[in-house]
């Protein structure tokens, strides 16, 4: 009788799903390499810096997240239940990581991994490519008027768009500047190269931007001037958020 009871208990334990005994996957906020540096009603912005040979541990994205590569990256991406993927992320590459995405990232090569991750706190509708293949396998939706807006001082390329958010790449030419801060939208500017930022009024301190630095621009607030004092293009990724 005792032997039979023991066997039944052992069989019950073996039948218990393995995943029920495993710890839950941590969130992006809990992942130790993701450092939250800005949070407001629209976004959480994380700076992610990882040394060569180290790894971003397995975690999940609860909301749609736009990841921006600061510098070239060689990584191995792990997704549960799928083979590892070895990939190269180009400098300034923009990737959309949809809500529910679970992954780890190992840093290959001998250069550090630097990314700015912008978590979008409001549900997004109809994300689609505009003039760049951010979403693999999907068609571009690039009207001629948006293909490459330009002036004597900058070039602008719309990359990705939803019903609530627009993402573009801007290249300010050497020795030139441009005004940022469309008063109809909230904006986030993520610098990809060294640049300067100053108020258009001339009142207030100038700000030096390094690769990976960012600035939040409030709807209805003061405009600012993005200045390229260097001898090559100074780029930034610009987000525009429709007021809620």
CATH architecture classification of the largest domain: Sandwich
Number of helices: 2
Helix content: under 10%
- Provide the gyration radius in Å: 22 Å
H/E element sequence: HHEEEEEEEEEEEEEEEEEEEEE
Low-confidence stretches: 9-22
Quaternary structure type: single chain
Number of strands: 21
Terminal residue distance: 68 Å
State the domain count. Answer: 2
CATH topology name of the largest domain? Jelly Rolls
Overall 3D form:
globular
Which structural class should the secondary elements be placed in?
mainly beta
Task: Give your account of this protein's structure.
The protein is mostly beta strands. The chain folds into 2 domains: 22-120, Sandwich (Jelly Rolls); 128-241, Jelly Rolls. Helices cover 7% and strands 45% of the residues. The protein contains 2 helices and 21 strands. The chain has helices at 2-15, 18-21, and strands at residues 26-27, 34-39, 43-50, 55-60, 65-69, 73-78, 85-89, 94-97, 102-107, 113-120, 128-129, 149-150, 154-161, 165-172, 177-180, 186-191, 195-199, 207-209, 214-217, 224-227, 234-241. Strands 11, 12, 13, 14, 16, 19 and 21 form a 7-stranded antiparallel beta sheet that branches. A 5-stranded mixed beta sheet has the order 1-4-9-6-7, with no helix packed on it. It is globular and about 55 Å long. The termini are far apart. Residues 9-22 have low confidence and may be disordered.
């Amino acid at each position: 009788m005792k032997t039979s009871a023991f066997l039944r208990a052992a069989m019950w334990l073996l039948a218990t799903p393995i995943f029920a005994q495993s710890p839950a996957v941590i969130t992006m906020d809990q992942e130790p390499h993701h450092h939250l540096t800005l949070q407001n009603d629209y976004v959480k912005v994380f700076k992610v810096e990882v040394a060569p040979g180290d790894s971003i541990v397995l975690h999940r994205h609860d909301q749609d997240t736009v990841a921006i590569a600061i510098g070239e990256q060689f990584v191995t991406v792990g997704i549960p239940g799928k083979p590892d993927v070895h990939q190269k992320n180009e400098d300034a590459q923009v990737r959309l990581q949809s809500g529910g995405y679970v992954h780890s990232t190992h840093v290959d090569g001998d250069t550090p991994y630097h990314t700015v991750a912008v978590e979008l706190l409001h549900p997004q509708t109809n994300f689609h490519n505009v003039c760049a293949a951010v979403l693999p396998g999907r068609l571009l939706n690039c009207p001629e008027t948006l293909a490459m807006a330009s002036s004597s001082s900058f070039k602008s390329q719309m990359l990705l768009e939803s019903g609530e958010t627009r993402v573009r790449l801007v290249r300010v030419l050497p020795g030139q500047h441009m005004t940022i801060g469309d008063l109809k939208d909230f904006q986030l500017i993520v610098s990809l190269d060294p640049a300067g930022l100053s108020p258009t009024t001339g009142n207030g301190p100038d700000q030096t931007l390094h690769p990976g630095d960012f600035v939040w621009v409030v709807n209805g607030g003061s405009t600012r001037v993005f200045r390229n004092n260097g001898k090559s293009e100074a780029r930034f990724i610009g987000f525009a958020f429709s007021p809620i």
